[in-house]
Amino acid sequence: MSADSVIPFGFESIPVRGALIHLSRSWRRMLRDHDYDSLVTETLGHAAAATGLIAQSLKFDGAITLQVQGGARLRMLVMQCTSNLELRGMASVDGSQVAGDFAELTGDSHCAVTVDAGERPYQGIVEINDESLAASLEHYFARSAQVPSHIALVADEAVAGGLLLQQVPGQPIDEDDWNRLHILAATLTCNDFAGEAGMGLIGRLFAEDDVRVYRAREVDFRCRCTARKTEDVLRMLGEREARAALEEHGDIEVICEYCGRRWLYAAVDVERLFSGNVFSAPDSIQ
Ligand SMILES: [Zn+2]
After folding, report:
1. Which of 77-81, 94-98, 200-204 is the least confident region?
2. For residue 180, how many C-alpha atoms fall within 13 Å in the half-sphere facing its CB?
3. Helices in the chain by DSSP H: which ranges?
4. Which end of the chain is more exposed for a tag (fewer CB within 10 A), N or C?
C-alpha cells in the first residue's frame, strides 16, 4: 500500500470493524501554505485522519465535514472529506497567544460532524473533550451514532495517521476483547507511519487476532474552491468594501484558505459582480 490511503479491515472472531488511515503527501500539501505551530499542526492532523476514517465508511456519495469552533485560541478548524476520499482542511488560530496543550487550545469549543448526502445533511454536535479530539469523537459516536468506538489519532508535520475500531451493531462482544483492542490501538505513534505502515502495521498491532484486510483506498488532497464560490466571498464583502479595496490596491486578491490558490479580480470583474446583470464565472476545475 502506498501512503495516503485507508485500509478497512475486520476481525474474524470479534464483532469489530476497523480502518487504518495513513496520510503523508496529502497531509504535507495541506500544511504547505500555512505556518501552524506544532500543537495546531498535531490537532489539524488528528482531524484529517479522523475525517478520512469517517468518510471511508460512507455508503453513499457525499462528504463529511468536521468543524471545531468556539474556542478562545482555536477560532475555527474545518476538515472536509468526500466519499471519494478527497480531503481538505484548515485552522484559524488566535495568533496572539500560544496554547500549551490541547485543552488550552480548544477550551470551551464544540465539534460538529456534518454528514452531507446531498438532500438531507445530518449534523451531530459534541462538546470538545479536554483530553483529545479522539476522545471527543468517541463520545460523538457513542451518543450520536450509538456505535461504541475506539479512535487513535497521531500526527506531526510529516504524517497523520489513525485507527478506527467500531463494534458491529447488534452483536455481543466480550468486554475483555474490546478493552484489549483499545489498549493495542492506544499504542499507535507517528513512528508507526514512518515507512509503509499499511497491512504490515495492522498485522503487527493485532498479531494475536485473525484479521481480514480489505482493499486499500487512496486518499488525495483536493480543494473544491471555484471562481463562483470565491465571487460569493466578494459579494458578501459588499460593493463599497470591494471598490475601496480596488481603489487602494488596483485589484483584489482572494486567497483560498484551504489550498492557497490566488483568485485575482480586476476592476472589470468587480464591475461585473456588482452590476445589475450578473453572470457568474463558470466553475473552474482545479
Ligand atoms: Zn482552494
Report:
1. 94-98
2. 12
3. 25-31, 38-55, 102-106, 133-140, 175-185, 198-205, 227-237, 239-249, 267-274
4. C
Q: pLDDT tens digit string along 208-260?
A: 999 999 999 999 999 989 888 888 888 888 889 989 988 998 999 988 999 99
Q: Are 233 and 38 in contact (CB under 8 A)?
A: no
Taking the model in full, what pTM does it have? 0.90
Q: In angstroms, what is the C-alpha Rg of the chain?
A: 21
* Distance between Cα 66 and ligand 1 center (Å): 17
Residues forming a β-bridge with 167: 16
Measure 224 CA to ligand 1 centroid, in angstroms. Answer: 6
Q: How far is the CA of 10 from the centre of ligand 1 (A)?
A: 35
pLDDT of residue 1: 46
Residues with CB under 5 A from ligand 1 (ion): 223, 225, 256, 258-259, 261
**Amino acid in position 169:** P
Question: How close is the Cα of 82 to the center of ligand 1, in Å?
Answer: 15
| pLDDT tens digits, 26-56 | 999 999 999 999 999 999 999 999 999 999 9
